[in-house]
């Protein structure tokens, strides 16, 4: 198990370039398999989630050529298998996303139950309900699902709650289906718009309603063709570096990021007293004075993103007063709080008082458990101390790394493999900002 050795206590300062978005890149690799023509993807991050996806795609028949460090050429003349291998499929939740191209080109797919971070169940019921309307039969056993179709047909489907990845799978499935598909209450994340842009470059006919972004129209086409596309930058990375600067009382210029994609985050830290300066594709974030406490609730786009709340929790430990976070997207996403507490943070879990949890929360009620808390109060500022931690979650791992940089003394972070799922060369890039961090590969 690889680790970071971190000597904390130094402010992060300088410039950092943001890589391609994790949550866009691996899905666009999958989308490339919708055509037998070559697809060129630019700004692909070198992270383990991408590597796993490339491995599965290659197993299914894709020929992948690296064009430099961050570009790929992908061509899938023929899909040679419709079964996602259980070993790689269980390591990541990417496996079911292959449903789009495999149903479109082969009429079937078998994939293992989704894996990924331990943040609560990832129910597929919303996706399956739409696929059934598109003439897809769904079979399952204890460990896998098999989807079959005699021909995809367009449908009109309303998601009961917005679903980021399910929206993307339906886009891939509907782009070559017969007739028109209308997705109502669709998710609005910028990574979805980036996928739409790629699919339209490939010959798709997809459009968001200008007056109602949650409404997407897809007119199915017979075939897709070659295209070249540059992947959107990773807004989670941008927020991570911003939180690192604020928690260590530093400043950072974040380059190659559209500030509009992190607008809610930037407005939040401005309210707390942070200094920001926005450009067209860059943003400057600086700690100028003690930050004040704030309360947030995670929500789908355009709300405060659930992927941000872990690293943002660290900022709240260094802010003045009592802050609170309510997690509305996943039933269990406070794994990082345990690590912050071990380093000296002062927190208290609570259950928000809501009249109708079924409508208030975005996860399915059956995914909830009595032991899951959905709110946490964070009291600050807290003086963090160095410690040794073992992480098993991407965002908790990033949070622990930044916390170690904030604390005085030397810390060790084991389980770096989880961090590498979503961050390329994180230690090296933090070092360029003045962090004293060593990456020990085991």
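-> sequence recovered:
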């Amino acid at each position: 198990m690889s680790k970071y050795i971190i000597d904390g206590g130094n402010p992060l300062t300088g410039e950092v370039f943001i890589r391609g978005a994790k949550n866009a890149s691996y899905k666009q690799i999958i989308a490339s398999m919708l055509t037998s023509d070559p697809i060129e993807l630019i700004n692909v991050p070198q992270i383990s989630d991408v590597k796993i996806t490339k491995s599965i795609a290659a197993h299914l028949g894709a020929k992948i050529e690296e064009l430099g460090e961050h570009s790929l050429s992908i061509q899938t003349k023929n899909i040679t298998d419709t079964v996602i291998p259980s070993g790689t499929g269980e390591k990541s939740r990417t496996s079911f996303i292959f449903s789009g191209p495999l149903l479109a080109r082969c009429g079937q797919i078998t994939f293992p139950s989704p894996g990924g971070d331990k943040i609560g169940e990832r129910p597929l019921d919303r996706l399956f309900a739409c696929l059934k309307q598109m003439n897809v039969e769904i079979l399952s056993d204890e460990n896998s699902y098999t989807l079959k179709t005699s021909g995809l047909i367009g449908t009109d489907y309303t998601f009961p709650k917005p679903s980021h990845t399910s929206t993307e799978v339906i886009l891939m499935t509907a782009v070559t289906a017969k007739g028109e598909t209308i997705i109502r209450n669709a998710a609005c994340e910028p990574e979805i718009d980036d996928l739409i842009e790629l699919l339209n470059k490939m010959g798709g006919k997809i459009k968001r309603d200008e007056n109602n972004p949650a409404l997407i129209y897809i007119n199915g086409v017979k075939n897709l063709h070659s295209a070249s596309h540059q992947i959107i930058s990773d807004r989670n990375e941008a927020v991570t570096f911003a939180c690192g600067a604020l928690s260590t009382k530093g400043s950072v210029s974040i380059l190659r990021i559209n500030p509009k994609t992190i607008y809610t985050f930037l407005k939040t830290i401005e309210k707390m007293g942070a200094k920001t300066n926005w450009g067209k594709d860059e943003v400057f974030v600086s700690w100028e004075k003690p930050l004040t406490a704030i309360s947030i609730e995670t929500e789908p786009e355009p709300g405060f993103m659930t992927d941000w709340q872990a690293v943002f929790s660290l900022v709240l430990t260094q802010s003045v007063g009592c802050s609170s976070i309510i997690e509305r997207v996943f039933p269990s996403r406070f794994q990082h709080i345990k690590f912050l507490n071990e380093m000296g943070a002062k927190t208290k879990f609570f259950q928000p008082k809501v009249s109708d949890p079924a409508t208030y929360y975005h996860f399915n009620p059956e995914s909830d458990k009595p032991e899951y808390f959905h709110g946490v109060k964070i009291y600050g500022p807290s003086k963090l101390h160095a410690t040794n931690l073992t992480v098993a979650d991407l965002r908790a791992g990033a949070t622990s790394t930044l916390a170690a940089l904030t604390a005085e003394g030397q810390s060790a972070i084991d389980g770096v493999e989880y961090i590498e799922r979503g961050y390329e060369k994180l230690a090296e890039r933090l070092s360029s900002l003045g962090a004293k961090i060593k990456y020990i590969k085991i």
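Residues 116-121 have pLDDT under 50 and may be disordered.
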